[in-house]
Amino acid sequence: MIKSISPITKKEYYIPDILDDAEEIKSFLKKNADKKVIVVQGLGFVGAVMSLVCANSLTEEYAIIGIDLANENTYWKIKSINDGIFPLIADDPKIAKFFENAKIKGNFMATYDPVAYQYADVVIVDINLDVQKKSYETYALKDFDVDLNGFKAAIQSIGRNCRDDILVLVETTVPPGTCDQVVKPIIEEEFIKRELPLKNYRLGHSYERVMPGPQYIDSIREFARVYSGINKISADAVEEFLKTIIDISKCELTRLEHTNATEMAKVLENSYRAMNIAFAVEWSRFAEEAGVDLYAMVNAIRARPTHVNLMYPGIGVGGYCLTKDPLLASWARKHHFESSLDLEISINGVSVNDQMPRFAFDRLVQVFGDISNKKVAFLGVSYRGDVGDTRFTPVEPLVEMVRETGAEIVLHDPFVSYWEEQNCDIESDLNDVLDSNTNLVVISAGHSQYKLKSTIDKLMALNNLLIFDTIGLFDKDQLLILQSKHKLSVLGRGDL
Questions:
Q1: Which of 39, 211, 316, 370 is most exposed, with the fewest beta carbons within 10 Å of its own?
Q2: Which pTM was predicted?
Q3: Dihedral sign for Cα atoms in the order 427, 430, 432, 434
Q4: Model confidence pLDDT, tens digit, residues 226-262
Q5: Domains plus CATH for the chain?
Q6: Alpha helices in 123-231 (DSSP H)
Q7: Contact indicator for 228, 205 with CB cutoff of 8 Å
């Protein structure tokens, strides 16, 4: 047996020797015999919460089966859900409420067994699709790739087991053209092998706009949705389903003409945001060279209604979408639509963002000098404030650069107890991190806790402290207080 440890619950789980959950699934469905069945493929940051939204549907009673792989990285999520412990931590009370409701109703279970697809009326695809970046320095040379093999295997698993009248709804962010050129042929190939008709299944795409944090649930349930189908029948089926889980009294459903369009809309949406951030990153360097405050300039510019979405500078881009979606788009342009051209500006935007941790490190050394003999406390390892998501966090390369100097490092985060990518525990008590031996504090995530007066008081209780704010967390009054005792630098501010 392979032992798997939950990064969230710290409970030890074991992967069964025999991967057969058929009887458990039958028992679950017997208790939910009057309900349509939704299978959510993937129990990560999107799939797990999407499962809760479906289990608490607005107009329909569903039985939800979440499915993921059985290995040491994912099996703990399955076991945790079935043990009544939701595997994600976020600052949204609706998550606990929705999960408790699902437990009371008994309409949500998790499994690793693809037999679940046999019972599904709807399959929602919420699995990872990564970009392999070979070098941060050579994006101009197109040194990245997209491996669809894992995604194809997941779709094959659906096609080999599902009914012929299934609705497959892809939420995964994919290269434009994927539903039409990858998902559709795989499903039809598997149906032909099983001698099933091809006219009954429906296939659509509707990308999520999940925002982990205080509005986690609402970002699925109450944010505007864009959707499409490979044909009108499919698009109609997607619309009918979405209306049961999306609160259309608070947001709109927008149909586009084809899955190519919604797939492109998703990566365009995220590419625009990534480019906006890269733009701010470039100007933050200029502001530091000129000795001025870029945050103050951005605030002044935002007073103009046409520029309210101008971004602040920061440590860089993290998370699952903005770090890769522009690259997915450029890859699709060449591989799915046979163009000889790349999306040059989008690629360069990702490159700028990925190199921001290096710039932050160089700035740290420039301002504070040699840190090799210092104790450095990082406040926040998540890529975003008030969430426990460390995927592609820009904090990781910065931590590694500081560690390479020989400095002693301590890590704190109120939302992350175990940093999976670094294979290390994270402190949750600020008192255990900020002690008399701390020399340098790096503000590396925008968690609300770090803005509290109690945190400022803890920092002020220390002596001879160096503070490096990489995200412009502190307000003007807090900066004045901290500056009265400590040496302080803010990334993107040449005057500090």
A1: 370
A2: 0.88
A3: positive
A4: 999 999 999 999 999 999 999 999 999 999 999 999 9
A5: 3-262 (3.40.50.720), 279-490 (3.40.50.720)
A6: 149-161, 178, 184-193, 218-221
A7: yes
